[in-house]
Amino acid sequence: xxxxxxxxQNGTQTDHRVTCIIPAYNEGPRIAAVxxxxxxxxxxxxxxxVDDGSxxxxxxxxxxxxxxxxxxxxENGGKTRAVATGLSRSNSPFVLLLDSDLTGLVNGDLAAxxxxxxxxRADIAISLRGNTPGIWKVLGLDxxxxxxxxxxxxxxxxxxxxxxxPPFGLEVWMNRICVALGARIAIVPWRRVASTSKxxxxxxxxxxxxxxxxxxxxxxxxxxxxxxxxxxxMLQLRVQIAPTGRRRRRPGRRIFERN
Length: 259
Known about the structure:
The chain is an alpha/beta fold. The chain is 39% helix and 19% strand. The radius of gyration is 17 Å and the shape is globular.
Protein backbone atom coordinates (compact mmCIF):
# COMPACT_ATOMS: atom_id res chain seq x y z
CA UNK A 1 0.00 0.00 0.00
CA UNK A 2 1.37 3.42 -0.92
CA UNK A 3 1.36 6.57 1.17
CA UNK A 4 -1.51 7.91 -0.94
CA UNK A 5 -3.48 4.70 -0.34
CA UNK A 6 -2.95 5.08 3.39
CA UNK A 7 -4.16 8.66 3.23
CA UNK A 8 -7.30 7.57 1.42
CA GLN A 9 -7.89 4.85 3.98
CA ASN A 10 -7.44 7.30 6.85
CA GLY A 11 -9.87 9.62 5.16
CA THR A 12 -12.62 7.00 5.45
CA GLN A 13 -12.50 7.21 9.25
CA THR A 14 -15.97 8.26 10.37
CA ASP A 15 -15.45 8.09 14.13
CA HIS A 16 -13.41 11.13 15.10
CA ARG A 17 -13.82 10.98 18.88
CA VAL A 18 -10.80 12.21 20.80
CA THR A 19 -10.20 11.30 24.43
CA CYS A 20 -7.74 13.49 26.30
CA ILE A 21 -5.90 11.66 29.08
CA ILE A 22 -4.07 13.75 31.67
CA PRO A 23 -2.01 11.89 34.29
CA ALA A 24 -1.42 14.00 37.38
CA TYR A 25 0.48 13.67 40.65
CA ASN A 26 0.42 16.55 43.13
CA GLU A 27 -0.28 19.12 40.41
CA GLY A 28 -2.86 21.14 42.34
CA PRO A 29 -1.12 24.49 41.66
CA ARG A 30 -0.86 23.85 37.91
CA ILE A 31 -3.52 21.51 36.55
CA ALA A 32 -6.36 24.05 36.31
CA ALA A 33 -4.53 26.02 33.62
CA VAL A 34 -4.31 22.90 31.44
CA UNK A 35 -7.91 21.87 32.08
CA UNK A 36 -9.29 25.29 31.17
CA UNK A 37 -7.90 24.84 27.67
CA UNK A 38 -8.62 21.13 27.24
CA UNK A 39 -12.23 21.27 28.43
CA UNK A 40 -13.03 24.22 26.17
CA UNK A 41 -11.63 22.66 23.00
CA UNK A 42 -14.15 21.70 20.34
CA UNK A 43 -12.02 18.82 18.99
CA UNK A 44 -11.85 17.03 22.34
CA UNK A 45 -14.82 14.85 23.22
CA UNK A 46 -13.78 13.53 26.61
CA UNK A 47 -11.26 14.60 29.27
CA UNK A 48 -9.95 12.03 31.76
CA UNK A 49 -7.74 13.11 34.64
CA VAL A 50 -6.00 10.17 36.29
CA ASP A 51 -4.96 11.29 39.76
CA ASP A 52 -1.95 9.13 40.58
CA GLY A 53 -2.29 8.97 44.36
CA SER A 54 -1.86 12.71 44.93
CA UNK A 55 -1.67 14.00 48.50
CA UNK A 56 -2.72 17.53 47.53
CA UNK A 57 -5.89 18.98 45.95
CA UNK A 58 -5.23 17.78 42.38
CA UNK A 59 -8.33 15.57 42.20
CA UNK A 60 -10.60 18.13 43.85
CA UNK A 61 -9.52 20.88 41.47
CA UNK A 62 -10.00 18.63 38.45
CA UNK A 63 -13.47 17.63 39.67
CA UNK A 64 -14.56 21.28 39.61
CA UNK A 65 -14.55 21.18 35.79
CA UNK A 66 -17.87 19.93 34.42
CA UNK A 67 -16.38 18.07 31.46
CA UNK A 68 -13.65 16.30 33.44
CA UNK A 69 -13.93 12.72 34.62
CA UNK A 70 -11.55 12.06 37.51
CA UNK A 71 -10.09 8.62 38.13
CA UNK A 72 -8.41 8.41 41.53
CA UNK A 73 -5.70 5.81 42.07
CA UNK A 74 -5.11 4.80 45.69
CA GLU A 75 -1.33 5.18 45.57
CA ASN A 76 1.34 6.70 43.38
CA GLY A 77 2.41 4.24 40.70
CA GLY A 78 3.97 6.53 38.12
CA LYS A 79 2.97 7.99 34.78
CA THR A 80 2.90 4.73 32.85
CA ARG A 81 0.33 3.17 35.16
CA ALA A 82 -1.76 6.34 35.20
CA VAL A 83 -1.91 6.54 31.41
CA ALA A 84 -2.60 2.80 31.17
CA THR A 85 -5.56 3.29 33.51
CA GLY A 86 -6.89 6.10 31.34
CA LEU A 87 -6.53 4.01 28.20
CA SER A 88 -8.41 1.14 29.84
CA ARG A 89 -11.34 3.48 30.56
CA SER A 90 -11.62 4.83 27.03
CA ASN A 91 -12.35 3.41 23.59
CA SER A 92 -12.18 6.39 21.25
CA PRO A 93 -10.14 5.90 18.05
CA PHE A 94 -7.94 8.91 18.88
CA VAL A 95 -6.03 9.64 22.07
CA LEU A 96 -4.53 12.94 23.19
CA LEU A 97 -1.98 12.77 26.02
CA LEU A 98 -1.20 15.93 27.97
CA ASP A 99 1.05 16.58 30.93
CA SER A 100 -0.67 18.37 33.80
CA ASP A 101 2.04 20.95 34.52
CA LEU A 102 2.06 22.95 31.28
CA THR A 103 2.18 26.73 31.19
CA GLY A 104 1.30 29.00 28.27
CA LEU A 105 -1.02 26.47 26.63
CA VAL A 106 -3.73 27.91 24.37
CA ASN A 107 -6.46 26.53 22.11
CA GLY A 108 -4.36 26.84 18.96
CA ASP A 109 -1.61 24.67 20.42
CA LEU A 110 -4.00 21.77 20.89
CA ALA A 111 -5.49 22.22 17.43
CA ALA A 112 -2.01 22.14 15.90
CA UNK A 113 -1.29 18.85 17.69
CA UNK A 114 -4.66 17.20 17.08
CA UNK A 115 -5.42 18.01 13.45
CA UNK A 116 -2.50 16.31 11.63
CA UNK A 117 -3.61 12.97 13.09
CA UNK A 118 -7.34 13.60 13.02
CA UNK A 119 -7.32 14.44 9.31
CA UNK A 120 -4.99 11.57 8.38
CA ARG A 121 -1.77 13.41 7.60
CA ALA A 122 0.15 11.67 10.42
CA ASP A 123 -0.25 8.67 12.70
CA ILE A 124 1.14 10.44 15.76
CA ALA A 125 1.96 14.08 16.56
CA ILE A 126 4.49 15.07 19.23
CA SER A 127 4.98 18.51 20.74
CA LEU A 128 8.26 20.42 20.76
CA ARG A 129 7.83 22.82 23.67
CA GLY A 130 9.48 26.17 24.09
CA ASN A 131 11.59 25.00 27.04
CA THR A 132 12.69 21.76 25.38
CA PRO A 133 16.48 21.28 25.85
CA GLY A 134 18.48 22.97 23.13
CA ILE A 135 19.87 19.80 21.57
CA TRP A 136 16.36 18.48 20.93
CA LYS A 137 15.32 21.78 19.40
CA VAL A 138 18.26 21.56 17.01
CA LEU A 139 17.34 18.00 16.05
CA GLY A 140 13.66 18.93 15.83
CA LEU A 141 12.42 16.17 18.15
CA ASP A 142 11.78 15.81 21.87
CA UNK A 143 11.69 12.03 22.10
CA UNK A 144 10.23 11.99 25.62
CA UNK A 145 7.66 14.74 25.16
CA UNK A 146 4.50 13.91 27.10
CA UNK A 147 2.18 15.78 24.74
CA UNK A 148 1.11 13.40 22.01
CA UNK A 149 -1.88 12.89 19.74
CA UNK A 150 -2.18 9.44 18.21
CA UNK A 151 -4.40 6.88 16.61
CA UNK A 152 -5.34 4.34 19.24
CA UNK A 153 -4.83 1.46 16.83
CA UNK A 154 -1.16 2.39 16.66
CA UNK A 155 -0.65 0.96 20.16
CA UNK A 156 -3.80 -1.12 20.75
CA UNK A 157 -2.20 -4.51 20.13
CA UNK A 158 0.60 -3.82 22.64
CA UNK A 159 -1.35 -2.25 25.51
CA UNK A 160 -0.80 -5.35 27.66
CA UNK A 161 2.92 -4.49 27.75
CA UNK A 162 2.27 -1.35 29.81
CA UNK A 163 1.93 -3.41 32.99
CA UNK A 164 5.57 -4.50 32.64
CA UNK A 165 7.01 -1.02 32.13
CA PRO A 166 8.64 1.11 34.86
CA PRO A 167 6.87 4.31 36.02
CA PHE A 168 8.46 6.52 33.35
CA GLY A 169 8.89 4.15 30.43
CA LEU A 170 5.81 5.17 28.47
CA GLU A 171 7.30 7.46 25.84
CA VAL A 172 10.21 5.23 24.75
CA TRP A 173 7.79 2.28 24.62
CA MET A 174 5.54 4.27 22.31
CA ASN A 175 8.53 5.40 20.26
CA ARG A 176 9.59 1.79 19.75
CA ILE A 177 6.19 0.91 18.33
CA CYS A 178 6.23 3.92 16.02
CA VAL A 179 9.63 3.03 14.59
CA ALA A 180 8.76 -0.64 14.21
CA LEU A 181 5.57 0.17 12.30
CA GLY A 182 6.98 3.02 10.25
CA ALA A 183 4.40 5.44 11.68
CA ARG A 184 4.24 8.94 10.24
CA ILE A 185 5.40 11.33 12.96
CA ALA A 186 4.45 15.02 12.94
CA ILE A 187 6.54 17.31 15.16
CA VAL A 188 4.52 20.31 16.31
CA PRO A 189 6.38 23.36 17.69
CA TRP A 190 4.83 24.80 20.86
CA ARG A 191 7.10 27.81 21.19
CA ARG A 192 5.15 29.52 23.98
CA VAL A 193 4.36 26.39 25.97
CA ALA A 194 6.61 25.15 28.78
CA SER A 195 6.58 22.30 31.25
CA THR A 196 7.28 23.14 34.88
CA SER A 197 10.78 22.06 35.84
CA LYS A 198 11.30 19.46 38.53
CA UNK A 199 13.62 21.89 40.29
CA UNK A 200 10.74 24.31 40.67
CA UNK A 201 8.45 21.56 41.95
CA UNK A 202 10.81 19.76 44.30
CA UNK A 203 13.81 22.04 44.82
CA UNK A 204 17.29 21.55 43.41
CA UNK A 205 18.12 18.28 45.17
CA UNK A 206 14.63 16.85 44.84
CA UNK A 207 14.49 17.82 41.18
CA UNK A 208 17.84 16.17 40.50
CA UNK A 209 16.68 12.97 42.16
CA UNK A 210 13.45 12.99 40.16
CA UNK A 211 15.38 13.44 36.90
CA UNK A 212 17.72 10.59 37.84
CA UNK A 213 14.77 8.29 38.58
CA UNK A 214 13.23 9.16 35.23
CA UNK A 215 16.46 8.48 33.32
CA UNK A 216 16.92 5.25 35.26
CA UNK A 217 13.48 4.09 34.15
CA UNK A 218 14.23 5.11 30.59
CA UNK A 219 17.43 3.04 30.44
CA UNK A 220 15.67 0.10 32.05
CA UNK A 221 13.44 0.12 28.98
CA UNK A 222 16.09 0.70 26.36
CA UNK A 223 19.92 0.69 26.44
CA UNK A 224 21.69 3.92 25.39
CA UNK A 225 22.81 2.65 21.97
CA UNK A 226 19.34 1.39 21.14
CA UNK A 227 17.91 4.69 22.33
CA UNK A 228 20.15 6.54 19.89
CA UNK A 229 18.96 4.27 17.09
CA UNK A 230 15.37 4.85 18.16
CA UNK A 231 15.80 8.62 17.98
CA UNK A 232 17.39 8.37 14.53
CA UNK A 233 14.53 6.17 13.41
CA MET A 234 11.99 8.70 14.65
CA LEU A 235 13.76 11.52 12.84
CA GLN A 236 13.59 9.53 9.61
CA LEU A 237 9.84 9.07 10.04
CA ARG A 238 9.01 12.76 10.43
CA VAL A 239 6.47 14.21 8.05
CA GLN A 240 6.19 17.90 7.29
CA ILE A 241 2.74 19.31 7.81
CA ALA A 242 2.26 22.12 5.32
CA PRO A 243 0.10 25.15 6.31
CA THR A 244 -2.23 24.38 3.39
CA GLY A 245 -3.13 21.03 4.92
CA ARG A 246 -0.98 19.04 2.51
CA ARG A 247 1.74 16.80 3.82
CA ARG A 248 5.19 16.21 2.36
CA ARG A 249 7.06 12.94 2.85
CA ARG A 250 10.49 11.82 1.84
CA PRO A 251 10.36 9.01 -0.73
CA GLY A 252 11.03 5.45 0.35
CA ARG A 253 9.65 5.76 3.88
CA ARG A 254 7.54 2.95 5.31
CA ILE A 255 4.03 3.92 6.29
CA PHE A 256 2.08 2.45 9.18
CA GLU A 257 -0.98 0.78 7.69
CA ARG A 258 -4.27 0.20 9.44
CA ASN A 259 -5.42 -3.43 9.32
